[in-house]
Amino acid sequence: MHILPQLRELERRYHDVLVVIGIHSPKFPAERSTRNLADAVRRLEIQHPVVNDRSFSIWSSYAVRAWPTLMFIDPAGKVVAKHEGEFTLEMLEPFLSAALDEYRAAGTLQPSKFELSAPLSIPDGPLAYPSAVFADEATDRLYIADSNHNSIVVSTLAGEVRQVYGVIEAGFGDGPPGAAKPCSSPILATTLFARSTCAVVQRRP
What we know:
The chain is of the alpha+beta class. It has two domains: about 5-105, Glutaredoxin, CATH 3.40.30; about 130-205, no CATH class. It is built from four helices and eleven strands, in the order H-E-H-E-H-E-E-H-E-E-E-E-E-E-E. A hairpin with a 4-residue loop joins strand 6 (about 140-145) and strand 7 (about 150-155).
């Protein structure tokens, strides 16, 4: 989970020459469930294929020793590199650039756009994976971090919605309440502090 932002950036930069495939080798019993895994893929908005390696067969086949591990496989299906642990894009750029140049020169690289045939969608409903809630009895307000809608929903304690801060696309930027993009929401006085996908920001309701 910690390397998802880096993986997303790799997918963006190399969208026509790099395919990311996630292999989920569960640490805990509850993580073996394919249903739970699919739910996590939706919640984390993962846009690449994820395999449930519940029996650790892929883990063993590739002699993996740690979470996370990156295996780099060339166009011929051969493992050409391995990285254990977290990483930065700067660590991988020299290797990827050299490898892609080599494959282009050999004529083995065939750029194409890879798309999922049936990507998992966010569940229907007013909220999608709410991650935090704050109740303010003095002002009769309930603040709900609607994480996968990238919004904070403000309602009365009885549940009547009064304001929604945020938009559908995740991100970070200044603007009016309808354009903010927070995803969790502790409250302090009249200032709304929201932890976004990349930073902690504050807004005044």
